[in-house]
Amino acid sequence: MSRAWIAVQLAIAWFPMWAIFTVLMMSAHDMPFPRAALASMPLIASAAALAVPVYRFTRRWQWPHPFRSAFVFGHVAAAVLYALCWFSLVSLIESAVAGRFVLVLGPGFGPFVITGMWLYFVVAGVSYANQAARRAAQLEALAARTQLAALRAQVQPHFLFNALHTVVQLIPTDPRAASRAAEQLAEILRGTVDEERDVVSLGEEWALVDRYLAIEKVRLGERLVVDARIEGRAMEASLPSFALQSLVENAVRHGAGPRMAPTRVTISASVVASELQLTVSDDGAGASDGDVAGGKGTGLRRLRERMRTLYGGRAKLDVATTLAGGFTASLVVPQGVHE
Fold this sequence. Notes:
Layout: H1 3-29, H2 33-60, H3 69-98, H4 109-170, H5 175-192, E1 199-201, H6 202-220, E2 224-230, E3 238-240, H7 243-256, E4 263-272, E5 275-282, H8 289-294, H9 298-311, E6 316-321, E7 327-334
Parallel strand pairs: 2-4
Antiparallel strand pairs: 1-3, 4-5, 5-7, 6-7
Helix pairs in contact: 1-2, 2-3, 2-4, 3-4, 4-5, 4-6, 4-9, 5-6, 6-7
């Protein structure tokens, strides 16, 4: 953030205080508005300048847990010091303007000091409130990152175990196919083990899914037919890592895996109105109403949890099945959120 923008924010923050002092000047000294506004300007400018060390002081002297009386006494002493510095700075400004030494007493030295102490406690209170809000936001972000890491740690081993199981199944029946599948699995391992990002591009995700489908095609042969319809610009769109993988794996395992007849898995993706719309469907046996209501499997439930953490309510995952069979998962991901 630039210094000019910080200065603008500080000016906006102190504007209400300047308005209060202007009204007090008008009522206490029967001044017209222009004169009162001008007279209150040195008071507010000096108070704002002295607020900077107060902000720094509150950052170094954190709110104690448990609360201690020394904390109160320390701030009372600091408030008195702030008030005396404020009185001195205002007097110096007025002396410079008048060209002679001037003591600005206003309604009296005592009320001046009390007002300065009040300003100090306002500044310190706002500073501590901002610090508390910032810590709460940091804790919330840390909790979200921790949850995402835990969910990602569940998804990756689950996917890799299934791919490895496919290779193992091929060893006794087709060693050459098992060898080819093992090579594909090695490529997948290189792309997933070190993946720590929560959001990736669809192009990167598709490279992983394409290798996974190559392994499954070796195992299932003509029983698996893949129809990919991905728009070019959709490849640049972002989505949660392993999101497409979870949807495709679900279609292969529950749609194509149990059947002897060929099963078509259709993958389509497009970007519409700043949203990635991704659909994975199969014409397999479908799912029960309970599976649809529950999200059909832990993989989809974990994906929903990650989407909720990453996007709140702006992303959604819908699943559906029909009496004729087949299962469809539709994912909508807003763009520009994690760039």
